[in-house]
Structures are given as C-alpha cells and as structure tokens.
Amino acid sequence: MQVIQAELFKQMLLMGAHNLERNRASVDALNVFPVPDGDTGTNMNLTLQAVVKAVSQVDEPHVGKLAAASATGSLMGARGNSGVILSQLFRGFGRHLQEMPEITALDLAQALVVGTETVYKAVRKPVEGTMLTVMREASQVAVQVAKRQNELLPTLRALVEQAESTLAKTPEMLPVLKQAGVVDAGGQGLLCVFKGWLAAASGEVIEDASVGPEADSARVTEPTFVSEEEIEFGYCTEFLILSPRVSEDKLHQELEPLGDSLLVVGDANLLKVHVHTNNPGRALEIGLAYGELSGIKIDNMREQHTELHFPTDAGPAEPVKPVGVIAVAVGDGLAEIFTSLGVDAIVTGGQTMNPSTEDLAKAANRVPAEQIIILPNNKNIVMAAEQVAEVVDKPIHVVPTRSIPQGLSALMAYNDEPADMAAMVANMTRNMRQVKSGQVTVAVRDHNGSAGMIKEGDFIGILEGDIVVFGDTLEQVTYELVAAMVDEEAGLLSLFFGEDVTEEVAQALADRMAEAFPDLELELRSGGQPIYHFIVAVE
Q: Which residue among 82, 333, 406, 407 is least enclosed by CB atoms within 10 Å?
C-alpha cells in the first residue's frame, strides 16, 4: 500500500491546474453555441488559479490542510457554472481529507466520490452527459480499483481511462453535443485535471506554482461618491491564519470592533480574513494570537481612491439601509440605467467575463445595507451568486435573472425599505419572468442548428437563449428578432444598442420598428455593452 504524502499531493493539485491551463483554449472551443460565451475552459482555469494560490500558501506538510485550502480557494475563485461545479467537487473532496496528514489511493478515490456527491446536492437539476457524469463514473471506478490494489498509479490510470470513456459517450447522452459533433466541455476540462494528477504521480514536477497571468478581478462600480475624507476605515487588510486555534465566529467577534467590511471564512485548517480598519497592526496581532499568518496584504484605500473615477455630482455616502442591490452588467449606459433604478453597485461582467464568487462577495460587503439582493443577469453567473451567502455575514437574496431585461424588469418591484422582504424577492422574481429577452450578436463559429446553417460572421438573433433568426445584415436580423418576440399582449419594446452600433444606425432601426409596430411604446437607449449589438426587451 502506497502512502501519498503532502508534497506529492500538492504537486498533483498544481499539475492538474497547469494541464488545464495548457488546454484551456481547446476546452473553450468545445462550446456548442456560436455565441461569444463565458467559456468553460476559461472559467475552470480561473477557478483553479485560485486553488493554486491557496495551496501555495500552505507550508505545513499535511494533505488535509492542502485539501482544505483547495476547497476554500475554489469557493472564493469560482467563476461560471463550470467553476462553481468544480468548487463543489473540491469542497466535498477537502471535507473528506481535511484531518488526514497523509493518504492512500483509496482515500483519494473516496474523497472524489464525496466531492461528486456534494456536486449533485448543489446542482438543482443535474444533467447527465456533462462533467457531472464524468466525475461520477470516473470516481466510482477509481474506488473499485483502489479497493483491489491500493496504489496511486493504477488508481489514477483507472480514473483517467474511465473519464475518457465517459466523456466519449457524452454526445449520446446530450443531443445538443451530438448535433455539434463535440464532447462536453466541462468533462473535457475535468479530464485535463485528472491527467495532470496522473502526470504528477508519474514524476512530472511543477516548479512554478503560477498557472498563467492573474485574472483581473471584476470591477465594482459604485454610484455613490465617497470623498477621501469620508473613508472611515482607511486600510483594506487581508491575511490567512494557518491551522487556526479559533473558530470563525470568535475571530469575527474580536475583529468586528476594528472596522467594517469584515469577512472571516474558512475551516479548521485555514481562515481567510478581510477587514477595513484604521489599525491593521491590531488586526494582525489578533490573528497572530491564533496561528501562523500568511498572505498578508494591506492597502491604503485613501491613496487608491484618488485613482478611481466617480461621478463628481453625486452626493455623500448614504447611511446603512435595510436592503441594497448588486447587479452584474457591462457598458456605461446599462450601468447608468441600473443605477437610476436604485442599484447600489455594478459588478462588471456578463457573457464573456463571469465575475467570481469573491468578486460578488466583495461588492456585497462594500454596499452599506443590512441585506443584499444580487441580480446576476446571466445564466452562467447565477450559481456563483448563490455561493455568496456562504462567505459573507449579511443575508443574501439572489433573484436568478438570466438577462439584462430580466434584471431591469425585476427592479420594477424593488423597494429599499420593504415591509416583507420575502414577498418583495418573490415579486421581483415574478416580474423578471414577465419580459421577453433577446440579443443580436455575431456568430463566432459555424453552427448547424434548428434555425439553419449559420456561418461564422453571420448576425444572429437570440430569443430566450435560442437562435431564432440569422442573416447578413444587422438591421434585418434585429427586425426579424423583434417580430418573433412581439405578440398581441406586447405593450413596450426597449432597444439597448451596444458599443459597436452608432446612434444614427440605432435611431434608423428604431424608426423602422415604430413604423412596423405602431401599437407599441418604443424606448431606445444606449447600453454601451460589448458583444451584443442590440439587447431587446418586450413586455
């Protein structure tokens, strides 16, 4: 029976991330939709970069502490649905191994089974033929092999071989994959990770823990101007406590008097602390009393503030209010519209840039409100938003908006001083379903779908996630999309034109719409968004 010690386990985690990073572009290319997307390979890679950073800060030779760090890192760094699923795999994996200083191949395989079970519990509607099927079947076979021969290499070979076999079958499980002639992208990414583990076990070594350029954190735009003098707590202080001798709750109580925006997250092996304070030294002293510190980072926010752009005509910072709203969007026009409807912070993100759970958590901590509502405004951001509740101390409510029009419609039911919070969230959710959402963009690859044979470079019109029209000209495709959206119940048509559309072109199209649909109230706004030439809302 082979014992897997911490150094080899760490190399496996690093090599898994490294191998995925090397194959990121090929995983991205498996996207079955011709629309520019928050690609699977990119999201999984960014999630694993957070794992690499987390495990690289653990110096103690202890497998369990490395596994726990991978769980915490992946949770905070999770981007997109694939990244969140990966983080849940690491979460169960880390929980199973956290008390073990060294492990066997059977321990590793069983941890993957526990991780897979955690994923299936977290995903509301598990779909077979995806990375879930790959991890489930591969981990089950790995356990069977490890029970017969508790050695690492045979177990990992079985893991990889079964992952390859299951991945090859995914087109038979999901018709959309078969139609596109590809395997599941998430499953391919997971296979890359498992192959990296096998490479490390076979003797390959990663000297440099970095898996690529650091991802930019999502930018948070706050509509409220805060002058330098109004920054009450000037130092953003972050650090890790290794092997903490204190609970999250107790440490939170001790740090709370020092400032605001306090975040304490982790487990018995590693705690992450974030606090805004005027006495960072005292915060470090408190942390040091309970364990070794690592990853210390102190930023002077008053200095940083002078480098940021804020509206000059905004008023002073508002006091804490009962409820605040965070919306995910990109484009100056869309940000202005959301702000005008009462949104407190805009997290920059969308179709090709999915913010992480940590990005959203930071925004939630910065908004001066007792409770937070998050509008993801993209189907690939909903799961990351739902994880925010696990890492912040405020109550978090996610209204699962899947598009910009849904986010705007949900805000029609928003009140920052609700008599009944649950009822308001329910009303916002109901409102979002009363609008039809459409987008016009350019196909980034050839695609043979239900709408016909689309060529790269064609304009495509998307209605509620499905391509319904395509063609050579922006005007005609947008017109046909609107025609497909309008019915006898429609009363309002809203067009938000993107950064690649001039106001003259947008106005000419709006004039055509007004002539074609005289019974509709028409609203034309500059959204300034990338990717989508037009975002269309009909209600």
A: 333
